[in-house]
Amino acid sequence: MRLHTEMRVNRITDEVWEIPITEKSGMLVPARIYATPTILQSMDVGVFEQVTNVACLPGIARYALCMPDGHWGYGFPIGGVAAFDVRSGVISPGGVGYDVNCGMRLIRTDLTLEDVQPTLERLMTELFRRVPAGVGAAGFVRLNRESLDGVMTKGARWCIEEGYGWHRDLAHIEEGGCIAGADPSKVSDQAVRRGINQLGTLGSGNHYLEVQVVSNDRVFDHDTAATLGITGHDQVVIMVHCGSRGFGHQVASDYLKVFEKAMRRYGISVKDQQLACAPFASVEGQDYFSAMNCAANTAFANRQVITHQIREAFAHVFGTSAEELGMELVYDVAHNIAKVERYAEGDLLVHRKGSTRAFGPGSPDLPPDFRKIGQPVICGGSMETGSYLLVGTDRAMNETFGSTMHGSGRTMSRAQAKKSIRGEQLQQEMKRRGILVKAVSMSGLAEEAGFAYKNISEVVEAVDRAGITKKVAELRPIGNIKG
Amino acid sequence: MSSSFHFLDDVATADLAFDASGDSLQEVFQAATCAVMEALADPITVGSSWRQTIERTDEDPAELLFDWLSDLVYWKDAAGVVFNRSELTLRRQENDGWALTGVLYGEPVSGVGQTLRDDVKGVTKHLYRLRQAQGRWTVRVVLDV
């Protein structure tokens, strides 16, 4: 098998591959990559280099991991998972990503394709109007420093208090939409000024709001799907992918600088400057953790305000309330975050960067209605190919610190994609295939063409076969809003 | 040869990478600034009703350029603007450091007549390198989008 690395990669199973610690000086644990042989062969050299760099970080437990949607990131690969002992290990903004708590949210409806198709153009126009997207977009929620502090500390709870959502939404958000330990005093004024006008905005890049359909033949586990409110039969659902916007990016940038200096003080050396880190127990480590939690809560709030706007748009177009339309939140899950979780080794700080928490059945962290089936996992594909709903497993708890994939992963650069197709052409082609796209930037749209991504179905098959998540349903796009 | 930049096809799959160059340090600063502005919006379609002067000093010109480019990303969000042009003056200081005075011109994002592109999240140090070779300054920058 030809791989984009000279390192020795041992087969553990057909979906699990291991790079032993002998392959790079300084590795403290082996690196493990979850992939089918086909996906492994397509992975860029950055995955192998970066996952083994992560394996060198102080206090790392068991393995440095990469999921099948892995590709070259900053410091950590996208798709990277690493857990560190809370006493002897580090925290690294490179293991969380610039977009803190970038994540996915799925909202169900009682509507079917037949109900929505005649009004799809009007619906997408209304969603495009109510959910600002793209560069420089400002949200409709007016915040001052005091109310932003509320967003930082309460997350989605702040939104519910302000009337942007239903109280029961909170149970279907990771951590109830509010992570404890957020301290606004650890956030810079620059971050505040970048974030204060952006609540309820999508951003650009690979962020989107998508109207999707679940056909009956693409439901793989009807009982689990039913528990999640997914009925199939051409049911319409809405998926949101976005994060903490400029606020979270500034938090990451601020603390990368802090950590560059702190590493010298703590005598930590890393293989890549973007792996800048500090002991989790240090003042710098705790300050970043508090600021990161502020950004994580801001992202939960961002997706909650967007949900409110989506419900308003549907209610407006269909002339009835969102409750009548059955617009319940299926789940909201982060895929760029670091959290303290308990495993066999004890309390570990689990970094997931482009990787989703996937807790198995019985986890006390799950809402009672999902405790039997495992945690919902929402994985976004390209805007042309579709997305997946999965659930976490016991095996993920045992093997991957309760983690799995997050999306399909790119195979082509943005610059290359733009040279391959024009945004206007892509928009027309997608319309012919029944997908209505509204985009702020046509060049940004071209960058997100389906051919620039791995086939998400292959990636999903890899985690399903590896047993770290279980397929529930495939979601096919019919309308997409991009920045 | 004067300053220039070009976006890279085969670097940073998920984001946006560019190489910028110039005959002087000031020229490479100018070229990299143009690249970030171009990444956000087509400058020709953006007016110049908004103006911001920024002054920065640093011993290390690479850090100075990194912080200056990050300033563009900051003002894009903080003021909700995209950019039309910039004026840069880079001076060597007596204590061996560098001083930059930059003026940014742009206008608030309206979407009317503006060709908007990527909402750049941050400037990264992934593959970041400012260097001088054969009398020419070059820098590689990866923007997180």
What does this structure look like?
The complex is a heterodimer of chains A (483) and B (145). Chain A has a single domain (10-411, 453-482), classed as tRNA-splicing ligase RtcB (Alpha-Beta Complex), CATH 3.90.1860. Chain A has 15 helices and 19 strands. Chain A has helices spanning 37-42, 45-54, 113-116, 120-130, 145-154, 156-161, 189-195, 222-227, 245-266, 283-318, 394-399, 414-420, 423-432, 442-447, 456-466; strands spanning 10-11, 16-19, 31-34, 64-71, 78-85, 90-91, 103-112, 208-214, 235-242, 278-279, 329-334, 336-343, 346-353, 356-357, 376-379, 387-392, 403-404, 436-439, 469-482. In chain A, helix 9 (245-266) runs antiparallel to helix 10. The longest helix of chain A is centred in the middle third of the chain and has 36 residues, at 283-318. In chain A, 62% of the residues are buried. With 145 residues, chain B is of the alpha+beta class. Chain B has helices at 25-40, 61-78; strands at residues 4-7, 16-22, 50-58, 81-92, 98-108, 122-133, 136-144. In chain B, helix 1 runs parallel beside helix 2. Chain B has a single domain, classed as Archease, Possible Chaperone, Chain: A, domain 1, CATH 3.55.10.10. Helix content of chain B is 23%, strand content 44%. Chain B is globular. At the A-B interface, helix 7, helix 9, helix 12 and helix 14 of A face helix 2 and strand 6 of B.
